[in-house]
Fold this sequence. Notes:
The chain is mainly alpha-helical. The protein has helices at residues 3-64, 73-83, 85-94, and strands spanning 119-123, 130-134, 141-143.
Amino acid sequence: MNIDTRNKILSVVLGVVILALSWWLYDSIVTPYKIVEERQAETERVRARMLSLKDALVQYEAKFGHFPPTDGGLDSIVTYLQTDSLMVAMGDTLFQQIPPLTYSPESIILAPRSGERFSYTLNDTLRPPLYLLEDPDSDDLIGSLSRTTMRNAPNWN
Length: 157
């Protein structure tokens, strides 16, 4: 084998190695970044749904003068959203979801990550009554059972 042939073979082999290492480096940077972006988008969808449920609770309180009870409270919200004429007419506008999620009265009480219900607890022993709305899949919550200043306030701001 003469020196020119050997140099050509080495150049081709090194070119392939450089391309493979470049792809590996690109993939090791981009793949974790995409995972982080997907996780952040999922968090935003969960928080948007929780805010929609909070808005539904506020609308419920404005209509009936009290929040729904702890037991069956989320079912009361679903019934309210399905039967109240204003909520039926304006529900999809008032409670817009971040795609690919869509609004429906039945799905507004479900956490998008796991499909479990949000946790809702009412403390009606204080004035004004306070509620706590929790995501079962994270530490996100809205409201407080003891702090009036946290009424209707999310903990992620």
